[in-house]
Structure to design on (764 residues):
């Protein structure tokens, strides 16, 4: 309910028409009485000024029939409607305006159009607008601006066209609103037409217009046009500079953005908090901590450091540059923390997790993000869609299914599950954690699906060996009109490869090129080569490689070598090995693959040659690490690790499982390995470690979880062939589902089968 603002009486007593503190109500004009808030009359019949609000409807009801009211009388009432977003009160005032006849005044009718728009009722505003006998440019502008504010840019543009057809000339404010509508629709062509209109009437050079054009072209992805619009502004203000610096960041030209920031300072234009946050964002993209610290100094110099957006940006910079302690210090010293601050901390830790070279550090960062999210929940603030999407991504990386399920429940309770960003992150989380059925359920329940949603689900099916479901989903996606991209086709071709569907793979490969005009990249060729190799069609695989428009990379040659080893074609394997060595690969697992092949063929000169290359390329020793999360705690293991208190029990269990597996047909496979000892250099031996890290993690999980619980393990390198085979038997003997996500793919072991189709273990 709208009410009059409180009457502020401070300092010396105000002199109104008479002493407001002691007046008879009858002696004060009606309009004047309605302009003040008051208490009931005192015993002597007088009344005093008070801070009690006067209800708008009551105030209007006090007006007698036929009382003349000036249009300005309605201004405070309408302003209160805007502040409280009270549409019912606005309608009451509208009715009173019609009753008093003041609706014919353009000022009043324009104010009503504006109020209806600000109260979120564009339909009421348009209905009123269409009945107005007279409209000026302010009325047109109020309607256009209102449509933009209410996310109806198409209607805003249609009204602008009607304005021009009516012969009315738009003002700068009108054109600014229209450019905002073009931004909202990402309509650069329409924006250029409006730009042409501005050039025609000579207002392009006005600062506000130049700023709007700069923002339009930036949001539409044309940085070149944005820079040109900026250069043509004769009197650039801080908004102009901020717009173009922000545009550079949004469009990926960080170096130009930094140069323009330096130019701004050299022209003695003082940056504001928005300029500095944009500049700090550029430093984040560049991961340039040194430059970021200089801008941090500018924030202190210009007195902006205390501004919360600036604090958030500085903190995120330190997080992005892996200065975690400094970021945490800034966070702890903040007097005021916004949801943006919490989200920056979560997203920052998630980013570190993805970029960290050390796996233990990456997962430590992930669990720090989970702790921050817990603190956010306890702070009294409510997470938003950015909080949920970031933390679900963290759960994906950690295989933290328990935490992921809790967050899923929270998204349902908060209502954010209906947001496509959150629901897509949820589908991805379940896929990465090996819960394909839960991922399917989450996908089916999505109210809206984007290309990312479809591709995530399709890729999940492919990774879990459900090729038919993946292809059916792809056809469903096309049927509803969603256009696939490069990543979508990687999922489709991978699904065909898993199922050995050669004809279908060739069909979709050609469809990608011819129907959708997508140029094949290395990942597409890798899927096709993988498919031919799985089928034992090695000649076709090599022939396909020769058709490529670029040189094969390390991955493709590794697939060919693994296939040749598996199918016994030694000559082609040696050929592929020579091509691979020419690339001087940096991945240590690639060299293990080569050494295994040469040692098994007893080609000792080639073994020496590979070792020499490893030494020259400074290839370090392998670090076999695995970890498992149980009841919010993470346990790390390495090969032959006996440091854990339960080591004796774990080794006894593994020996028992291996003995039983041998009776079922398991045959140990010996492969060459690089030493896992940190103090040894590139030592190579033929005696494999007794137990690799993932087997120890699995044993620990079997001991410390209840019967029937899925075991989820993360490994920092690729599973070897022996571990892969043994874990298949473990899944039979324990009647457990065992999920291992290594550096290349997800392995879901169930009843003696793996979702990778067994080819994933041939690369080592």
């Amino acid at each position: 309910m709208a009410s009059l603002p409180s009457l502020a009486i401070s300092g010396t007593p105000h002199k109104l028409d008479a002493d407001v503190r002691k007046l008879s109500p009858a002696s004060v004009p009606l309009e004047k009485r309605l302009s003040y808030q008051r208490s009931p009359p005192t015993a002597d019949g007088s009344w005093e000024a008070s801070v009690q609000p006067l209800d708008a409807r009551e105030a209007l009801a006090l007006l007698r029939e036929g009382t003349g009211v000036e249009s300005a009388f309605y201004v405070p009432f309408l302003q209160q409607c805007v502040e409280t977003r009270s549409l019912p009160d606005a309608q009451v005032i509208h009715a009173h305006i019609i009753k008093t006849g003041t609706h014919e005044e353009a000022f009043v009718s324009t104010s009503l159009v504006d109020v209806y728009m600000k109260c979120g009722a564009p339909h009421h505003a348009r209905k009123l607008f269409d009945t107005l006998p007279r409209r000026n440019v302010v009325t047109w502008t109020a309607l256009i601006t209102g449509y933009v504010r209410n996310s109806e840019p198409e209607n805003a543009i249609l009204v602008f066209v009607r304005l021009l057809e009516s012969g009315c000339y738009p003002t700068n404010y009108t054109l600014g609103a229209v450019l905002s509508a073009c931004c909202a629709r990402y309509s650069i062509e329409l924006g250029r037409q409006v730009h042409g209109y501005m050039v025609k009437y000579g207002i392009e050079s006005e600062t506000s217009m130049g700023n709007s054009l700069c923002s339009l072209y930036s949001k539409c992805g044309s940085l070149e046009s944005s820079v040109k619009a900026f250069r043509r502004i004769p009197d650039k203000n801080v908004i102009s500079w901020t717009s173009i610096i922000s545009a550079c960041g949004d469009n990926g030209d960080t170096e130009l953005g930094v140069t323009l920031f330096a130019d701004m300072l050299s022209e003695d234009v003082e940056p504001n908090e928005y300029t500095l946050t944009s500049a700090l964002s550029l430093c984040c993209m560049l991961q340039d901590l040194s430059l970021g610290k200089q801008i941090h100094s500018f924030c202190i110099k210009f007195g902006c450091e205390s501004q919360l957006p600036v604090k958030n940006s500085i903190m995120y910079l330190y997080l992005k540059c892996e200065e975690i302690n400094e970021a945490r210090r800034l966070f702890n010293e903040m007097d005021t923390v916004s949801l943006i601050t919490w989200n920056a901390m979560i997203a920052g830790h998630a980013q570190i997790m993805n970029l960290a070279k050390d796996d233990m550090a990456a997962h430590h960062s992930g669990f720090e993000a989970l702790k921050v999210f817990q603190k956010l929940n306890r702070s009294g603030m409510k997470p938003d869609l950015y909080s949920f999407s970031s933390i679900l991504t963290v759960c994906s990386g950690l295989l933290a299914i328990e935490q992921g399920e809790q967050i899923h429940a929270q998204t349902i309770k908060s209502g954010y599950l209906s947001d496509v960003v959150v629901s897509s992150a949820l589908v991805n989380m379940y896929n990465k954690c090996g819960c394909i059925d839960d991922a399917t359920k989450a996908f089916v329940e999505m109210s809206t699906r984007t290309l990312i949603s479809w591709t995530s689900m399709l890729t999940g099916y492919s990774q879990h060996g459900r090729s038919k479901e993946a292809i059916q989903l792809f056809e469903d996606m096309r049927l509803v009109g969603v256009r696939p991209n490069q990543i979508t086709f990687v999922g489709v071709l991978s699904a065909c490869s898993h199922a050995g569907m050669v004809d279908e793979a060739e069909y979709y490969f050609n469809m990608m090129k011819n129907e959708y005009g997508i140029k094949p990249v290395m990942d597409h060729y890798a899927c096709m080569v993988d498919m031919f190799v799985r089928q034992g069609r090695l000649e076709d695989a090599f022939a396909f490689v020769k058709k490529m428009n670029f040189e094969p990379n390390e991955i493709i040659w590794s697939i060919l070598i693994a296939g040749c080893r598996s199918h016994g074609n030694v000559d082609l394997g040696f050929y592929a090995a020579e091509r691979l060595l020419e690339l001087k690969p940096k991945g240590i697992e690639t060299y293990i693959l080569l050494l295994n092949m040469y040692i098994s063929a007893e080609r000792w000169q080639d073994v020496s040659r590979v070792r020499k290359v490893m030494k020259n390329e400074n290839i370090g020793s392998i670090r076999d690490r695995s970890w498992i999360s149980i009841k919010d705690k993470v346990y790390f293991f390495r090969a032959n690790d006996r440091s854990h208190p339960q080591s004796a029990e774990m080794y006894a269990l593994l020996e028992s499982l291996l003995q039983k597996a041998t009776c079922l047909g398991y045959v140990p496979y010996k492969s060459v390995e690089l030493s896992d000892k940190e103090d040894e250099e590139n030592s190579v031996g033929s005696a494999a470690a007794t137990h690799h890290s993932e087997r120890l993690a699995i044993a620990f999980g079997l001991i410390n979880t209840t019967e029937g619980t899925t075991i989820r393990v993360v490994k920092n390198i690729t599973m070897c062939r022996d571990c892969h085979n043994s874990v298949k038997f473990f899944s039979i003997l324990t009647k457990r589902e065992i999920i291992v996500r290594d550096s290349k793919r997800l392995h879901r072991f169930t009843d003696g089968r793996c979702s990778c189709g067994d080819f994933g273990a041939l690369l080592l």
Q: What stands out?
A: The longest strand covers residues 625-630. DSSP finds 37 helices and eight strands in the chain.
